[in-house]
Amino acid sequence: MMKTMTRMKIYRPNYNLAEAKAIEFLNYLEKKELPIKLIKFKTIFDDLEIKTYSWYSKKMGLSIEKVCDDLGSEDGCCVYNEVNGKYRIYYNDTIENEGRKRWTLAHELGHYALKHHENYGHNIMQRNGNLDVNYDAFEKEANCFARNLIAPPYVIFHIKDVNPSLIQHVCNISFEASWNIFKFIKQGIQEFGRGYSRDLAKKMGFESFLFSINNRFFCKECRCNFILEAPSHCPCCGRKALTKTPFKYGDDFTMKYPAIEVDHKSRARVCPNCQNEEMEYEGDFCKICGYYIVNDCSNDDGNYNGESCGILLPGNARYCYKCGAKSTFYMKNFLNEWNYNSNAPLEVSEDDLPF
Ligand SMILES: [Zn+2]
Ligand SMILES: [Zn+2]
Ligand SMILES: [Zn+2]
Ligand SMILES: [Zn+2]
């Protein structure tokens, strides 16, 4: 007995490895945005399946309570099949707390990512299980992986005025978890002077996500939210006072008001006047009908000082978001008033849906 004990290697958690693995996993995802869509990983790895407790309960004819007993955890587990080398994660989908479910899933993904089963000879890793002296270390590693996957600190760090409830909302995790992440980041800055360069977030592909979360505005008049850099007027209804908020209140402006599609210079891709589709522009004019086809600030609302503010506008902007003047598309009646026939059903292409 003593002999076995002395030979047993005590495993210490390798946090750097867990962090690196989380970064590797984020790299596999096509969309770089929060909340992370954890379920996507089952389509990325051939040797991984993700199943719910409801599925297991139906298949085995067991109550959920029995499933918890059977799998040894109320939350979830990760099972390794030595014969075919495949992993299966089970998570308890009947738990109402969405944040807790997501954390379990991320944690079990950690056991998979860090190959705990293969490396340490366990076939099953249960959340809150307690199999041997090393189990605690595996749990810590899996939690570190989960934290870095679900709330990557180099992204969270660059969210303006970040606080625990914002982290909870943005990452879709429990309040408790978001507090821990908040403390972890604050402590890193205050005690160790640890920060995260913007370059890492950029390199990881989160730049446009960060732009959108840091530049989202809500208009109380038309009840739209939109993403623009430092707007002073609503591009939809022209109202002046806007609320800056990372939360998606009201309607998504681009989804509710489909746009005339424009290029990077705000030029219509199809002439809104003559419907000419072969847009070989003569400068900013349609080659066929000669119409000005740029959506920009018309600078013509009667109370502006006459100097062009020169802003190129999105294809659905009715108003210049800098000075409040009408947009050229709106002036020419290519766009309806924002409150025109607003009950009409909208045509939204499947590509525009956020899920
Ligand atoms: Zn675990
Ligand atoms: Zn508005
Ligand atoms: Zn034309
Ligand atoms: Zn303007």
UniProtKB/TrEMBL annotation:
A Pfam family recorded for this sequence: Peptidase_M78
GO molecular function: translation elongation factor activity
UniProt keyword annotations, A-Z: Elongation factor, Protein biosynthesis
Chain ranges of the IrrE N-terminal-like domain: 84-150
Domain of life where this protein originates: Bacteria
Protein name: Zn-dependent peptidase ImmA (M78 family)/RNA polymerase subunit RPABC4/transcription elongation factor Spt4
The organism of origin for this protein: Lysinibacillus parviboronicapiens
